[in-house]
Design goal:
single chain, 62 residues, mainly alpha
Amino acid sequence: MVIADTRSALDLVMTVKYEAGAESIVIDKDVICGDFFILSTGMAGEILQKFMNYHAANSETV
């Protein structure tokens, strides 16, 4: 599991963005914890908001 919580998602995207210099990232759903897909947990919203805040996503890619 690569993305288990909000922190691990942010760590991943920051590593990809700043260490690898990538502009985009594709994440296989199999490496994301199941709670992400249960909208009532709020995890998806928290993660996507952090991606937006850190300019790791834009409205066209989300």
